[in-house]
């Protein structure tokens, strides 16, 4: 008699520079996606069902995650009990070595739970640094973890005012890059948070250059369009540099045309982090373990 199939929600983080993005890529491709490694780790647990990991939030090549999520079904063979949440977390991390991917925790969820469609919101942080002449002055430990904007100072007040234009429900067509999903995905999104605050780097205090200033741009929405955060970040930086006026930014928002976005204004991927994916607390309440579940 086979054991029951259990659906798990896994919370995971990764250093994105090594991967083609979070989504699965063809096995013959030289650079694979994070999903490839997650699915390989699950297969090494020898489930009897076909393995498919369903990622909640897409991130592109070079983009990192402090916490992304995905769900996966696991059915063990013979009469082996389902994995407990802790055992699954430890087993997946064991099989993910030495990849810069880490499972933070696992939760047993209802059979119809979906990591993507049950998510209430996503929060992204984009990290900037100013005050340096070139990338060689950046602390080596910050390589690929922030965007060096070669300005001594940004007009942060103007950036804050510009960020407020994004708040609320808008058609963000101008701020999405075109891809295969464009015809099928609504460009109307509700921006719950768009903010710029002083950032922090542990390594800055150990660096000789005291002119470094880190900034965190935080965006929270129910969901985001393809490259939307990078385009919004690039536009806000352009405002801070005086290259883009607030009226022009308002025009870009209202024109609702992806091709109207200025060329070369999008922020690079390496400063972008998916911070968290939120769900209703009721869906993630601790579920009582069956006495037969492997602890």
Automatic annotation (TrEMBL):
Binding site for substrate: 124
Keyword Isomerase among record annotations: yes
Catalysed conversion reaction: uridine(38/39/40) in tRNA = pseudouridine(38/39/40) in tRNA; a uridine in tRNA = a pseudouridine in tRNA
UniProt-annotated catalytic positions: 60 (nucleophile)
GO process terms (BP): pseudouridine synthesis; tRNA processing
UniProt-listed CDD domains: PseudoU_synth_EcTruA
Key words, A-Z: Isomerase, tRNA processing
UniProt keyword annotation of Thylakoid present: no
InterPro entries cross-referenced by the UniProt entry: PsdUridine_synth_cat_dom_sf (IPR020103), PsdUridine_synth_TruA (IPR001406), PsdUridine_synth_TruA_a/b_dom (IPR020097), PsdUridine_synth_TruA_C (IPR020095), TruA/RsuA/RluB/E/F_N (IPR020094)
EC number: 5.4.99.12
Alphabetical list of Pfam families matching this protein: PseudoU_synth_1 (PF01416)
A molecular-function term among this protein's GO annotations: RNA binding
Similarity comment: family membership: Belongs to the tRNA pseudouridine synthase TruA family.
Record protein name field: tRNA pseudouridine synthase
Organism, as annotated: Lepisosteus oculatus (Spotted gar)
Lineage, opening ranks: Eukaryota, Metazoa, Chordata, Craniata, Vertebrata
């Amino acid at each position: 008699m086979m054991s029951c199939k259990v659906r798990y929600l896994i919370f995971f983080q990764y250093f994105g520079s090594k991967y083609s993005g979070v989504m699965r890529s063809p096995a013959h491709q030289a650079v694979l996606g994070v999903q490839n490694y997650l699915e390989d780790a699950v297969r090494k647990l020898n489930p009897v069902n076909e393995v498919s990991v369903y990622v909640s939030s897409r991130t592109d090549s070079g983009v990192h995650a402090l916490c992304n999520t995905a769900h996966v079904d696991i059915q063990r063979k013979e009469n082996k009990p389902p994995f407990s949440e802790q055992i699954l977390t430890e087993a997946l991390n064991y099989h993910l070595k030495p990849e810069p991917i880490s499972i933070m925790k696992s939760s047993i969820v209802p059979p119809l739970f979906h990591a993507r469609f049950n998510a209430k919101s996503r929060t992204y942080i984009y990290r900037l640094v100013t005050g340096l002449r070139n990338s060689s002055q950046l602390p080596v430990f910050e390589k690929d973890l922030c965007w060096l904007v070669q300005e001594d100072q940004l007009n942060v007040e103007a950036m804050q005012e510009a960020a407020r234009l994004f708040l609320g429900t808008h058609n963000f067509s101008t701020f999405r890059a075109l891809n295969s999903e464009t015809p099928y995905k609504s460009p109307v999104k509700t921006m719950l948070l768009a903010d710029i605050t002083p950032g922090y780097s542990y390594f800055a205090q150990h660096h000789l250059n005291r002119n470094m200033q880190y900034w965190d741009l935080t965006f929270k929405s129910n969901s985001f369009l393809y490259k939307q955060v990078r385009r919004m970040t690039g536009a806000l930086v352009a405002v801070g540099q005086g290259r883009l006026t607030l009226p022009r930014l308002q025009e870009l928002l209202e024109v609702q045309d992806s091709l109207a976005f200025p060329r070369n204004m999008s922020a690079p991927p390496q400063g972008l982090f998916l911070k968290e994916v939120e769900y209703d607390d009721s869906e993630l309440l601790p579920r009582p373990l069956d006495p037969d579940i492997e602890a």
